[in-house]
Structure to design on (130 residues):
């Protein structure tokens, strides 16, 4: 049975932007996070989001970094296991690398915004930051 708590909706994300209570992590590369490159209607990222590119979870040969390395990377991004973390990317798939890294480090307090930038970026009623 799917765990509904592991899937965030656009409404969950909008509430997190305005009310807090959930850390938003953008798993796209820095250029997309900063709005230097984009696909879709708008550049930028979801307000309040922190950048933690999915590619940082892997060694140059494509293997996963060690749990110790992942723990350090996750902590340096400001992720606290006591605070719910929602990850997104362009379409919800790349964000799963960040979520799997969280799980590998013992943090199960996460959710995936699978609508991701493909949904948020196209919604002109939702705010973005460059």
């Amino acid at each position: 049975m799917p765990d509904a708590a592991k899937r965030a909706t656009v409404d969950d994300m909008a509430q997190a932007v305005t009310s807090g209570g959930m850390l938003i992590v953008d798993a796209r590369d820095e250029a997309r996070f900063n709005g230097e490159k984009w696909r879709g209607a708008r550049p930028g990222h979801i307000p309040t989001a922190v950048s933690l590119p999915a590619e940082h979870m892997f060694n140059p040969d494509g293997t996963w970094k060690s749990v110790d390395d992942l723990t350090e990377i996750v902590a340096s991004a400001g992720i606290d296991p006591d605070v719910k973390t929602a990850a997104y990317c362009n379409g919800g798939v790349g964000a799963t690398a960040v979520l799997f890294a969280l799980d590998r480090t013992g943090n199960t307090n996460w959710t995936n915004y699978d609508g991701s930038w493909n949904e948020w970026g196209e919604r002109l009623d939702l705010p973005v930051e460059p």
The beta strands are 7-8, 22-26, 50-51, 84-88, 110-113. The radius of gyration is 14 Å. The longest helix spans residues 10-19. Residues 4-120 form a domain with the Oxidized Rhodanese; domain 1 fold (CATH 3.40.250.10).
